[in-house]
Amino acid sequence: xxxxxxxxxxxxxxxxxxxxxxxxxxxxxxxxxxxxxxxxxxxxxxxxxxxxxxxxxxxxxxxxxxxxxxxxxxxxxxxxxxxxxxxxxxxxxxxxxxxxxxxxxxxxxxxxxxxxxxxxxxxxxxxxxxxxxxxxxxxxxxxxxxxxxxxxxxxxxxxxxxxxxxxxxxxxxxxxxxxxxxxxxxxxxxxxxxxxxxxxxxxxxxxxxxxxxxxxxxxxxxxxx
Length: 225
Fold this sequence. Notes:
alpha/beta; 9 strands; seven-stranded mixed sheet; single chain
C-alpha cells in the first residue's frame, strides 16, 4: 500500500524556498505553482499506483475518482499540544503552546481561503466527506476500527459522524428540545459541534467515558476558532 502525505510535499517546497511552512501557505495563495506540484503528484500516484493509496491530504478527494473520503477533526487545543510535542524542523518549529495554536489557526484559515479561490471548494464543509471522526480522545486503533467498520457496510449516502462526546456542546435546552431523542443531531460551526437534539444520549455517552459516539450532521457552517 502506498501512502502520500501532501503536507510533506508542502514542507519540502517551503524548505526549497527557505521559508516556514506557514509562509509557504501565504505564498501559495497567490502562486499556483505550489498547489500545481502537489496536485499533479496526487493525480499521478492515483493513476499509476497498482496498489491502494492512502492520501493524507486536504484536497486529494477532489482529484481522486471514487476516493473513500474520510475527514479527521480534532479539538484545536489538543492539536496544538500534539504539534508542540513533535520534533521541530527547519520549516516548522514553535516555542510555546500559544504560538502553535496561532500558527495552526492561521494555516487553516489560509488553506480554506486558498482552496475556495482555486477550486471553489470549502474544505471546512463536512458534507464533502463520507465519514468524519473526532480524534481528540480516540486512539489511532479506535479511529482505524471506525473507518473499517463503516466502509465494510454499504457506502454511506450521507456524512457519518463519530464524535468525542465531551467535545459536543449541548444546545438542546436553549432550543427547547426534549432530551429523549433517539439520535444526537449536531450543527457544526468550526471548530465546535453543537448538539441540537439527543441531549440525554449525549449525557450517557459522556458518563460512560466513550471516546466516540455516532451523531447526525444537521448543518455545517464555517466559523473561525
